[in-house]
Amino acid sequence: MRRFSSWMSSGAPVQEKDREPPKLSKRAYGYVKEGERMKQIAELSANQYSKDNPDGVVIAGIAQNSILQEELADYFNAHLELKEQDFSYGDSISSSDRLAHALNALFKTRFNSRVDLKPDQFVFGGGLTAIIDQLTSLVCDVGEGILIAEPYYNGFNHDITGRSEGIPVGVSLKDFDDLASPATLDAFEDKLTELKSQDGPTIRAVILCSPHNPCGFTYPRETIIRYLQFVEKHDLHLFVDEIYALTTFANPNMPNAPPFQSILSFDIGKESGCDPSRVHCLYGASKDFSVNGLRIGVFSSPWNKQFMTAFQANSIFMKISSASDALWSTLLNDRDYLDKYIHKNSRELAATYAHSACFLRANGVPFREANSAMFIWMDLRKFLRTKTDAGVVLSSQQAQEDDLAAELIKAGIFIAPGQIYAAPEPGFFRLTFTLRMDYLDVALSRFKKVLDARR
User: Fold this and answer.
1) Rounded distance between C-alpha atoms, residue 200 and residue 203, angstroms
2) Strand pairing of 297-300 and 122-125?
3) Which residues are in coiled coils (predicted)?
4) pTM
5) Which residues, in sequence order, are CB contacts of 202 under 8 Å at separation 6+?
6) What angle in degrees, to the nearest 10, is found between the helix axes of 322-333 and 97-110?
7) Contact partners, residue 388, CB within 8 Å, separation at least 6
8) pLDDT band for position 28 (cuts 50, 70, 90)
9) In the chain, N or C: fewer CB atoms in 10 Å?
10) Three-class SS of residue 236?
């Protein structure tokens, strides 16, 4: 005992505050900034507005459709049925026959798919974040890039860089009024030329977000064909993110808007001359079915067996739960309810969009008309101020945007600032309008108070 006590007391005592934390990888230290952003989101989520928390923040800045969630909760609670196989790894690590057959039927009826997809032509993962993370590792070596038209969904930054260490490379479309025009592919050509002249990152792929996040529009077929021709010309992959495929609605102010057109509906080689093996389709349950929490992302590359085999090799890292699989499969196979849900969701989207757009017009807020997704892209530049109430000078437009974003949160509403979407300049914001109507009215009322104070 004396020897043990002597060993314990030898040398100067180490104070807890003097201890260096155990070493982490260089990669981990790079995650700290993103971790801080996640903390901010968690703080907002922990203080969300509700009838029981009327002083909480109304979240109108994340991609979530809560309009029919109460109805969906009732449906899922009444229809969850797990079988013995659901308590094992099921019939596939990367897919499931049950969900694959249900999705193939959905794609045939709702996406006008020309392809009869088999279970081994799918990979399912814990949301599209996991899917895109894996995709990046399959097409990009460290430091290689993926082109994306600006503005773009901010999650692509983390999905591409987080673990695979690819580089999202934005393509500015600030000179185009019509962001869906085939002519925007000229900007992609210019960007590639610029990267080569400046010894920029090697580009391996292009992401097409169709329908578009954050601007809420659908692409004409001619533009999608231009994307196909571009990737063929430059020997690139094309990832078509169709997560908002069924989140579309009628907007009388966009009478000529094209309908959503899935990449699965194209005769790719015949229509564009593109090798189909470089084209890949992404989908998921989160947006069209209002179930962000179920975490189901879908990938299919029916024209590239080698790509699918490589993807399936690492799919165990993101296998979805059997419960999520069972819930979504049940809804997709319930054709009567599925049709009713899709039609009702579209009507509700149109109603909440029209309500929000009417508010913006009445309050002098410029915005882009939308016919899809969950967002209204607003121009709040005239509401930026150069000095705070305390007299602090806001010397840059970015500081002015940050100031407005902070004031909105202080007023009890979170609206996403444009900087995180690579907006062409500070002052643009993305409003999520897919809230249940009573919550939406609270959000807009709080928004109005901030706008009125800045007139």
Assistant:
1) 9
2) antiparallel
3) none
4) 0.93
5) 143, 144, 145
6) 40
7) 394, 403
8) confident
9) N
10) coil
